Amino acid sequence: MVYVCDAIMGTGKTQSSITYLNEHNNQKFIYITPYLEEAKRIKTGCPSLQFVEPSNRLKEYEFRKSTHTAALIKAGKNITTTHQAFKGYSDEMLDDIKRQEYTLIIDENVDVLEVFDFHPYDLQMAVDAGYIEERDGIYSVANNQYKGKALQDLFTLLKSRELIRITDEGENSLFYWALPPDLLTSFKDVYILTYLFEGQSLHHFMEIYNIPYKYIGIAQTNKGTEYRFCEYPGYTPEYVSHLGDMLHIMDVDKLNQVGDDQYALSMNWFKKGGAEVKQLKNNVYNCFNNIWGDIPADRRMWGSYNGEFDKIKGKGYTKSFLTFNTKATNEYRDKTCLVYIANVFMNVNEKKFYQAHGIEVDEDAYALSIMVQWIWRSAIRDGEEVFLYIPSKRMRTILTDWIEKTSKGGDSVGQT
């Protein structure tokens, strides 16, 4: 069964999973998280389970993390690893997972599609040679006897995942690795720890393959010192009712005007460049060095797309950058003055993939799920007041609507 713990940040999702792990130490677990720092937290919090992090530094496993992972699974060891490593599990590894009756815990959303950077001619060559077959834009292994090295990485991935072709608006063929449903269904149970699940790619993926799930909540026990999973909805932290008093969103027309257009600050907007991008940089400089000039540099944080860093960086804040979609890290919890420079939309081709399967994407829910995770890397997670400059009118409106609804006890979790 898949259990989704859809609870706002700071509710105790990780602590609840540690409680569950320690109370079921006779079971076998794989715990995946975006960052190794969280993997180490699980190892420390559950000493009796002797979690192991797969390594690519061991000669006996050919210096390959995947080979080490396969050996650990076959031996029934408890594993903690990153999202990226988890996505490459082979059919043989999944068979061993079924045999060992592993339980999976997923900390935060897992991306369903990943871009495949490969020349179409090389792929077609493998198809023509009979090694790969293609049906309706989906590629899979047809012959496992490929012995060469040139396409080795391609065949390694194809043994665990399908490759799909999506045609963009310019009639160009783009290729993506698609997450296989067996990556979830091979486990005895799956726990997904997240927030705003219905706006995320993993939710759409589960809809495509009709993978059922059940919402669970979190309960505080032992006078609030212990957290554990419970029936939905569980408790809501007291601070949630005060979000409007804790998140101070800048309301200055002169600074916000640059983001008035529906698509301002999107990736395509940045690609066009021009005077508006320069104005945005000036606004950010003004925020950090004038409006918030008395705030120490180590309390500042700004986020945008990695490729736009050089266009916005400036005196007093360059080193305070954190990519716009960062989640599940506690390293920035001292930041109180934030600038969020992104207008988030789902990748057009990923959206087409879901729509081709009859799944409609809520772009605002998707954007919100990414933005609030970024904001909650800051001091807000410790109950401190935070000051925000969000130039995009669309993103600012999405956030203020969410704050109003959530602080009044509105339920952001769907009923499935």
**What is the number of helical segments per DSSP (H or I, 4+ residues)?**
17
Question: What is the typical, i.e. mean, pLDDT?
Answer: 91
The profile of the biggest β sheet is: 7 strands, mixed
Strand content: 15-25%
- Based on CA inertia axes, which overall geometry fits? globular
The strand line-up of the biggest sheet is 3-2-4-10-1-11-12
Q: Rg from C-alpha positions?
A: 23 Å
What portion of residues is helical?
A: 25-40%
Structural class: alpha/beta
Which stretches are low in confidence, meaning pLDDT under 50 for 5 or more residues running?
412-416
Report how far apart the termini are: 14 Å
Total of domains: 3
Strand elements, count: 16
In short:
The protein is of the alpha/beta class and 416 residues long. The protein is 35% helix and 19% strand.
Structure description:
- The model is unreliable at 412-416 (pLDDT under 50).
- Strand 8 and strand 9 (173-178) form a beta hairpin.
- This protein has 17 helices and 16 strands.
- By secondary structure, it is an alpha/beta fold.
- 35% of the residues lie in helices and 19% in strands.
- The chain has a seven-stranded mixed sheet with strand order 3-2-4-10-1-11-12, with helices on both faces. Strands 5-9-8-7-6 form a five-stranded antiparallel sheet, with helices on both faces.
